[in-house]
Amino acid sequence: MAAKKDRLFLITNDDGINAKGLEALIELVQPYGKIMVIAPEDGQSGMSHAITVKYPIRLKKLEENDQQVVYSSNGTPVDCVKLALNKLLDKRPDMILAGINHGSNSSSSIIYSGTMAAAMEGCINGIPSIGFSLLDYSPEANFGSILKYAKIILENALEKGVPKDTCLNVNFPINTYQKIKGIKICRQNKGVWKEEFEQRVDPMKRDYFWLTGEFKNLEPEAVDTDEWALHHNYISIVPVHTDLTAYPAMDHLSDWII
Amino acid sequence: MAAKKDRLFLITNDDGINAKGLEALIELVQPYGKIMVIAPEDGQSGMSHAITVKYPIRLKKLEENDQQVVYSSNGTPVDCVKLALNKLLDKRPDMILAGINHGSNSSSSIIYSGTMAAAMEGCINGIPSIGFSLLDYSPEANFGSILKYAKIILENALEKGVPKDTCLNVNFPINTYQKIKGIKICRQNKGVWKEEFEQRVDPMKRDYFWLTGEFKNLEPEAVDTDEWALHHNYISIVPVHTDLTAYPAMDHLSDWII
Question: ipTM of the assembly?
Answer without folding.
Answer: 0.93
